[in-house]
């Protein structure tokens, strides 16, 4: 139906050996929304994104994309279906050029459309300027833009962003969040994982707060930002 969430995660459990990283997490992402999962280091955010992206198999639970059960779909099939991830730490290939890194973004679709690459250069002029340089020579912020552009080449309906602000100077974090808001403004659904909870909630429509593999609070992002318990426990005093 029209108001069915584009992504539904139900009872997700992820573990590594004896470690229970995600202990029965459920959340929904309405089409076109920006939803954020916030929580401390080790809360399970990356594990959730990797499970949704098809990079790791959950122990239990269901992941639905546009109503279809995609729980056991591998990553390449998820990308083809319309779910692309910008991984934690960016995973830029440092010795390949910017252009080569971008070309990899279309790989899962079997081809890189020249028009999609051109669109990314238009959106990120600095990547066009530096297209012939090894990606490892870019600044941290530029590498994050490259990682985002590489994912957008696949024209995803849902973009999964894992800690895009990590390790960046405050001014560059502003740039990254401006890009995220632009992406959302074009109609792409965004799932944003962040340790920078205050910042992520300020940009999001809905938020989920995670603590040791469980959701402790959820709701409209502005309500979470105004919730004293959330502020005290997770956002600190600034
Ligand atoms: P971070 O910000 O550090 O990525 P996170 O909230 O994304 O934190 P996860 O990376 O999902 O959390 O980790 C959740 C838990 O699972 C942590 O206790 C972590 O140590 C553990 N964990 C994650 N990956 C592995 C792994 N490959 N093997 C064993 N334990 C792991």
UniProtKB/TrEMBL annotation:
It comes from the Bacteria. One of its GO terms (molecular function) is ATP binding. Keywords: Amino-acid transport, ATP-binding, Nucleotide-binding, Transport. InterPro entries: AAA+_ATPase (IPR003593), ABC_transporter-like_ATP-bd (IPR003439), ABC_transporter-like_CS (IPR017871), BCAA_Transport_ATP-bd_LivF (IPR052156), P-loop_NTPase (IPR027417). Residues 7-237 form the ABC transporter domain. Belongs to the ABC transporter superfamily. This is ABC transporter ATP-binding protein.
């Amino acid at each position: 139906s029209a108001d069915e969430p584009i992504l539904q995660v139900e009872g997700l459990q992820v573990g590594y050996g004896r470690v229970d990283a995600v202990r029965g997490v459920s959340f929904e992402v309405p089409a076109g929304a920006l939803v954020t999962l916030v929580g401390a280091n080790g809360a399970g955010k990356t594990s959730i994104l990797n499970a949704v992206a098809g990079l790791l198999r959950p122990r239990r639970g269901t992941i639905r994309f546009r109503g279809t059960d995609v729980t056991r779909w591998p990553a390449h099939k998820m990308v083809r279906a319309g779910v692309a991830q910008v991984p934690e730490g960016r995973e830029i290939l440092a010795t390949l050029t910017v252009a080569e890194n971008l070309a990899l973004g279309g790989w899962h679709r079997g081809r890189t459309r020249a028009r999609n690459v051109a669109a990314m250069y238009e959106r990120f002029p600095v990547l066009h300027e530096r297209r012939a340089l090894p990606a490892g020579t870019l600044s941290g912020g530029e590498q994050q833009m490259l990682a985002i552009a590489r994912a957008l080449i696949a024209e995803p309906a849902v973009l999964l962003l894992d800690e895009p602000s990590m390790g960046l100077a405050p001014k560059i974090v502003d740039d990254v969040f401006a890009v995220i808001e632009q992406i959302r403004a074009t109609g792409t659904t965004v799932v944003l994982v962040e340790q920078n909870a205050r910042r992520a909630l300020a940009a999001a429509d809905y938020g989920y707060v995670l603590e040791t593999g469980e959701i402790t609070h959820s709701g409209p992002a502005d309500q979470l930002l105004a919730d004293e318990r959330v502020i005290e426990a997770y956002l600190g005093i600034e």
